[in-house]
Amino acid sequence: MKEKITPYLQKLIDGGNAAIAFQFKKRKQKKLKPKFKNPDPLGEDEKYSPVKGLVHKFRNRVLWKLTYDCAAYCRFCTRIRQIGSPEGDLSYEEIDAGAEYIRTHPEIYEVILSGGDGIYRVHYSMYVLDTLMKIDSVKVIRIGTRMPLHSPDSFKTKLFKELLKKMRYIAKRKQLLVLIHINHPEELTKKVMNVIRTIKKTGASILTQTVLVKNLNDNVDILEKLFTTLYQNGIRPYYLYRCDYEEDLRPYICSYAEEKKIATELRRRLPGPAYPMYVVDLPEGRGKIPPPLNFWKNTGSSRACFDFDGKKIKI
Predict the structure, then answer these.
(1) Residue 196 has pLDDT above 80, yes or no
(2) DSSP labels, 188-233
(3) Going by C-beta distance under 8 Å and a sequence separation of 6 or more, which residues neighbour residue 41?
(4) What is the rounded distance in angstroms from the CA atom of residue 98 to the CA atom of residue 137?
(5) What are phi and psi of 225, to 5 degrees?
(6) Among candidates 270, 273, 283, which has minimal Cα distance to 242?
(7) How far, in Å, CA of 165 to CA of 197, rounded?
(8) DSSP letters along the chain, please?
(9) How far is CA 282 from CA 121, 160, 220, 246, 253, in A?
(10) pLDDT tens digit string along 105-128?
């Protein structure tokens, strides 16, 4: 995957923002003996794509990849096999085919716009949103994006202002959620927070997802600061992900035992709504499964746990 960095991100990097540089700057990695053979670890393309762009893994919802492009490329992207390829840009005919699939499967009540980035090709996104508004069985629309972090100034353009206006219209009629991928508190600049507040004004609910990345945020103090800041600004931390098992991502995968230790300590420190669900997105699309935290470790019984102070409690 080639390097792609927006002028906004480059300015932060030039100013010494190490967390941004780590996520987006290409650098030499130590060659490792191959371990993971499947470039599509979640089985999105091989098993669950009935129509180009759609991923239908779970009965009541679909993921819709509108493009394989983003404003900037994260070095640990789970879709590293695809990102940057023009093959992912859907034509209007292909969007219509995806909409027809959703329309003929009324059990699908949620559509998640993604990619790439769910709003990077903003004209496609607006066309899709208009289309989904006409499908009565779709009750929930979720938009996955990093645009507020990659290019906050884009939201001042005429096209993105039109998108925000459309989101405001949709939020009054369907459940609209915006899921923003945020990994480190240094990403939460004044510009970024202003954009997120602007999105909130549309009436959309704002959620976040965070990937645990080795040597970036595998630290309980960093993550506590991130989730506390989000929570105090009315943003709901949603998922804390284990990095996916893709060969090119191996340098970024943390120790599983250390991740559980971090997730356990975060649960001690954070209020419930500020605590994201720690999950492993299982291979071949078998689900986002929350591992048991260390409150349940070595209790000697399935009906005992440790409390926040480390005291064993029978339940």
Answers:
(1) yes
(2) --HHHHHHHHHHHTTT-EEEEEEEE-TTTT-SHHHHHHHHHHHHHT
(3) 78, 244, 245, 246, 283, 284
(4) 14
(5) -65, -45
(6) 283
(7) 14
(8) ------HHHHHHHHTT-HHHHHHH--------------SSTT-HHHHS-SSTTEEEEETTEEEEE--S--SS--TT-TTTTTTT-GGG---HHHHHHHHHHHHT-TT--EEEEESS-TTTSHHHHHHHHHHHHT-TT--EEEEEE-HHHH-GGGGGSHHHHHHHHHHHHHHTTSEEEEEEE---GGG--HHHHHHHHHHHTTT-EEEEEEEE-TTTT-SHHHHHHHHHHHHHTT-EEEEEEEPP--GGGGGGPPPHHHHHHHHHHHHHHS-GGGPPEEEEE-GGG--EEPPP-GGGTT-SSTTEEE-TTS-EEE-
(9) 29, 35, 24, 12, 14
(10) 999 999 999 999 999 999 999 999
Highest average pLDDT, of 67-81, 160-174, 276-290, 301-315, comes from: 160-174
Q: Do 279 and 290 touch, CB atoms closer than 8 A?
A: yes
Amino acid identity at 308: F
Q: Are 81 and 29 in contact (CB under 8 A)?
A: no
pLDDT in tens, 40-65: 777 777 789 999 999 999 999 999 99
Contacts with 118 (C-beta within 8 Å, 6 or more apart), sequence order? 66, 112, 125, 143, 144, 145
* Contact between 253 and 211 (Cβ < 8 Å): no
**Ordered domains of the chain (ranges, CATH):** 30-314 (3.20.20.70)
Structure tokens at 288: 């986002």
Measured in whole angstroms, how far is the alpha carbon of residue 199 from the centre of its chain? 17
Which of 65, 56, 140 lies closest to 105 in space, CA to CA?
Answer: 56
CA gap 251, 2 in Å, rounded: 17
